[in-house]
Amino acid sequence: MGTLILDASVLIGLLDSADAHHERAVTDVESADLAGHSLVAPASAYSEALVAFARGGRLADARDAVSAMGIAVAPLTAAMAERAAGLRADRNRLRLPDAMVVACSGELGGQLLTSSLITYAASPQASGMTGHEYPADDGAIKTV
Fold first, then answer.
1. Rounded distance, CA 99 to CA 62, Å?
2. For residues 11 and 116, is the Cβ–Cβ distance under 8 A?
3. What is the pTM of this model?
C-alpha cells in the first residue's frame, strides 16, 4: 500500500506497555500492517525511542522488538537534514526531532503517525509540512 513513518512517541508506545499511548500505538500500527503499509522509523526517532531502554540495559530487547514488528529504520540523509532545518527555521515551536521525522516523511513520501505533533498528520507534500498540524508559536494548533 504505502509507507507509514513512525515517530518516537509511537515507537515508545509500542515498546512500553505502561506508556499512555500504548494501546493507540498498537492498534494503529497493527491496522496499518494489516492494510499492507510498510512501517518505517527514521533513525533519529528510533534513537530517541531507545534512550530509556539503553538506560535500563535493555537496548537489545527494544531493538529485537522493533525488528520483530517489521519496522525498518531509515537512515537520515543530507536532504532530510536540510529539509528539517528549513522546517525548524520556519516554525519556532517545532522541535528539531519532530522536524526530522516530518522531513523523513516528506522525503520518503510516507504518511506520518505520531502522538506528539498531533495524532495523525496527512501525507506531506513538497513543502514537507502541507497538511500537517503542528504547534504554532502562539501555542495554538495550526495546519499548513
1. 24
2. no
3. 0.78
